[in-house]
């Protein structure tokens, strides 16, 4: 059930899921694990329970005809609630919407009718033997946190990308970097300037001092210099 | 602790993602974690069962209450495994007594029911702080990801329950049917009699087994939440990249120094090489890029080309797929007699069925009426729904209505409305002719145009020229009128544009012809 490969062979553990499009573009998806998904399901369950309760109360007034309508309502809410929301609302049921999740195909494309129906019909396999025990175990054991329905339908529950807020950089005169940097290194410098507010002053100095020697400045001025380079990297805004 | 040795990708994550990373971390070391947990808890549970055989409820409560103690072992393993030094089972158990000491009482009393237990444990166990410093540290760390840790505990409680019930249900499903038939539910209710103690202990055991799966994950999730909080607070990811950058740059400097020394040592050689190669700009190849070259080495150009084309034939450069579809066969087989008979029987049966249905024709009628009503209702609704659209655009959809444009009141700057003309035109012309020949001829021409407009209903527009007016008269098939109009127009043009007076004899000729043409018609 669990696999534990030798440590040296495997790359650092990460929660990202890479998809390469035919055009050679790497999409970075972030599969969502058991806990946010369980909460999203709980929200959906509560909403459905509420709707069903209200529906029963109202339809009970109609007698036998109402009973028929109530069973239709139960059918719709049990089998079609998730499918309709997922297909028509960009892979988001209300619970997933609240938890910032959405369902997509394995290759990053929006979920369609076939996949959504499959994953929601197979929910009844996940429920076995009781209270989603199989689904929970499958979700914990899969590297992309898929339950059995997801594996069968080829779908993935991911975190939605929220639009990033405009970064607030520390004030400094823009400087040109004295050496060439890879994208990752440029991001780290920008991150240092952006996250200055979250770091304590001694920690900032400590971090900046690491780069004092390559920058050829005294350790005390390194922070200001890095902020300047970050401002230069950001360009005019 | 060296960040470069970390076996997880370090970057700031959301609390949910940090917990996901914990699941992955527990999964990677699952064997060790589950084995150590089982070795620690199963004997303890057995001991508790023996001691409290008569009180299974108390046994499981005590076991449950002591959970924070067992959690220190997986945390020890994870914290070492994170930086590559995964301990063996033996090492982990050797370290256990030392792990249990700090904060033992707090863990079992006021911190036992804390929802952020998993998140606080790394601070208590790994940081080794004491007293006020520890409380301050907990407060600082708990500012952001503590909410996530509470949710983790809440979901964890429910997961434990779900898995517990699931496992119990699985066991129940595996019971042979005969036992189930003989089952006396009443005896279960009578549990107080002590007959069913073993069943309660079995159910407790199931809970203990469930914890073997869930607790390492719970501890790992709390640990990664803690790591994530420290990554955000101390910018571990930035430190990691800065260190690599520093190593690269200073390393490059050393390499350059080394390379410079080598260069000086080999200077004569390199100068000779430069002379041998001569011009640095290669001459254009006379045979083109397809010619064979590099023939004096193992991999010549031809072999390279073959390898390249071989590579290009494979994915991802070449994408081949075979598609399987159903389609009609080329020739339809002759239907055999049996087939025909079967078909006729089937049709007869269908007909009989249809007769049977005729009794239900009333029902069908109702349905038909309902469907028609639905269709009509849909159409009515559509009309109502798009009524504004229809009102706006339907008018344009009709054929353009031919409405005769209002007759112009002026042509070539001349008044042509009947009101502006005298009643008896020829006599007015004759009066004017001698003194004002221009006005007289103008009046005549105006009268002609007015007649064409209002009596002949010619569609004259102010944009027409005199010649166009003449050509419009042609279709009227009135020879006299055409000739008269042509003559009058010619004289009028001569006078108006050429300033040549008409001959005097023209006066009577035009007027008499006018009377002949229009005289019998009473002038309005």
UniProtKB/TrEMBL annotation, chain A:
Topological relation to the membrane, as annotated: Multi-pass membrane protein
Main location: membrane
The RDD domain, residue ranges: 32-154
Keyword Transmembrane set for record: yes
Keywords: Membrane, Transmembrane, Transmembrane helix
GO CC list: membrane
Compartments where found: Membrane
Entries under InterPro entries matching the protein: RDD (IPR010432)
Transmembrane segments: 38-59, 65-88
A Pfam family: RDD
PANTHER family reported in the protein's UniProt record: SLR0254 PROTEIN
Name assigned to this protein: RDD family protein
Annotated source species: Pseudomonas xionganensis
TrEMBL record, chain B:
Entry keyword set: Membrane, Transmembrane, Transmembrane helix
InterPro entries hit by this protein: TgpA-like_C (IPR025403)
TM segment ranges: 151-175, 205-228, 249-267, 363-384
Keyword Transmembrane: yes
Keyword Coiled coil among UniProt keywords: no
Domain Protein-glutamine gamma-glutamyltransferase-like C-terminal, residue spans: 444-515
Annotated Pfam families: DUF4129
Name of protein: DUF4129 domain-containing protein
Organism the protein comes from: Pseudomonas xionganensis
């Amino acid at each position: 059930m669990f696999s534990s490969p030798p440590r040296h062979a495997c790359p650092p553990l990460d929660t990202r899921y890479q998809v390469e499009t035919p055009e050679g573009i790497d999409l970075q998806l972030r599969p969502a694990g058991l806990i946010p998904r369980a909460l999203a399901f709980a929200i959906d369950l509560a909403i459905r329970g509420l709707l069903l309760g209200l529906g029963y109360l109202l339809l009970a007034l109609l007698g036998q005809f109402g009973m028929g309508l109530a069973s239709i309502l139960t059918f719709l809410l049990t089998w079609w609630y998730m499918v309709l929301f997922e297909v028509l609302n960009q892979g988001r049921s209300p619970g997933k919407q609240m938890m910032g999740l959405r369902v997509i195909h394995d290759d990053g494309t929006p979920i369609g009718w076939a996949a959504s129906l499959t994953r929601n019909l197979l929910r009844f396999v996940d429920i076995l033997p009781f209270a989603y025990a199989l689904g929970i175990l499958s979700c914990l054991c899969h590297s992309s946190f898929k339950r059995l329905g997801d594996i069968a339908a080829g779908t993935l529950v991911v975190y939605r990308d929220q639009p990033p807020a405009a970064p607030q950089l520390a004030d400094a005169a823009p400087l040109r970097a004295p050496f060439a940097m890879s994208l990752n290194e440029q991001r780290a410098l920008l991150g240092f300037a952006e996250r200055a507010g979250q770091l304590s002053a001694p920690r900032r100095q400590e971090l900046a001092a690491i780069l004092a020697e390559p920058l050829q400045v005294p350790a005390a001025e390194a922070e200001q210099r890095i902020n300047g380079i970050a401002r230069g990297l950001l360009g005019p805004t | 602790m060296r960040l470069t040795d970390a076996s997880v990708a370090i970057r700031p994550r959301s609390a949910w993602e940090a917990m996901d990373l914990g699941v992955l971390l527990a999964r990677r070391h699952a064997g060790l974690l589950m084995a150590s947990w089982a070795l620690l808890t199963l004997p303890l549970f057995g001991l508790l069962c023996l001691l409290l055989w008569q009180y299974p409820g108390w046994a499981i409560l005590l076991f449950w209450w002591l959970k924070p103690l067992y959690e220190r072992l997986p945390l020890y393993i994870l914290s070492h495994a994170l930086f590559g030094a995964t301990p063996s089972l033996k090492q982990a158990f050797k370290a256990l007594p030392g792990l249990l000491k700090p904060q033992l009482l707090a863990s079992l009393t006021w911190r036992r029911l804390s929802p952020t237990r998993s998140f606080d444990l790394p601070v208590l166990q790994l940081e080794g702080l004491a007293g006020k410093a520890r409380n301050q540290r907990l407060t600082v760390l708990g500012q952001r990801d503590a909410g996530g840790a509470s949710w983790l505990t809440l979901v964890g409680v429910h997961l434990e329950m779900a898995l517990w019930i699931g496992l119990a249900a699985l066991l129940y499903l595996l019971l042979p049917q005969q036992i189930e038939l003989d089952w006396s539910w009443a005896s279960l209710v009578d549990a107080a009699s002590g007959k069913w103690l073993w069943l309660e202990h079995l159910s407790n055991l199931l809970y203990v087994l469930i914890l073997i799966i869930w607790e390492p994950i719970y501890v790992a999730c709390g640990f990664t939440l803690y790591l994530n909080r420290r990554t955000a607070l101390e910018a571990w990811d930035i430190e990691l990249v800065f260190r690599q950058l520093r190593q690269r740059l200073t390393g490059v400097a050393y390499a350059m120094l080394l390379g410079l020394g080598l260069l000086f040592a080999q200077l004569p050689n390199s100068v000779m090489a430069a002379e041998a190669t001569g011009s640095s700009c290669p001459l254009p190849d006379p045979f083109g890029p397809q010619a064979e070259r590099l023939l004096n080495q193992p991999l010549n150009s031809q072999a390279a080309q073959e390898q390249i084309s071989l590579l290009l034939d494979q994915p991802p450069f070449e994408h081949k797929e075979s598609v399987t579809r159903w389609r009609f066969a080329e020739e339809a087989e002759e239907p055999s007699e049996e087939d025909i008979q079967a078909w006729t029987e089937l049709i007869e049966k269908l007909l009989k069925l249809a007769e049977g249905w005729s009794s239900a024709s009333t029902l069908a009628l109702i349905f038909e009426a309902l469907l028609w009503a639905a269709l009509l209702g849909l159409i009515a609704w559509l009309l109502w729904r798009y009524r504004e659209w229809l009102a706006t655009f339907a008018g344009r959809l009709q054929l353009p209505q031919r409405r005769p444009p209002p007759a112009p009141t002026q042509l070539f700057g001349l008044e042509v409305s009947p009101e502006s003309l005298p009643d008896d035109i020829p006599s007015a012309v004759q009066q004017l002719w001698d003194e004002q020949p221009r006005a007289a001829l103008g009046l005549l021409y105006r009268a002609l145009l007015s007649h064409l407009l209002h009596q002949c209903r010619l569609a004259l527009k102010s944009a027409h020229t005199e010649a166009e007016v003449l050509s419009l008269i042609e279709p009227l098939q009135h020879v006299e009128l055409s000739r008269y109009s042509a003559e009058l127009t010619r004289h009028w043009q001569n006078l108006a544009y050429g300033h040549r007076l008409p001959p005097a004899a023209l006066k009577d000729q035009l007027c008499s012809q006018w009377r002949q043409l229009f005289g019998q018609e009473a002038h309005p």
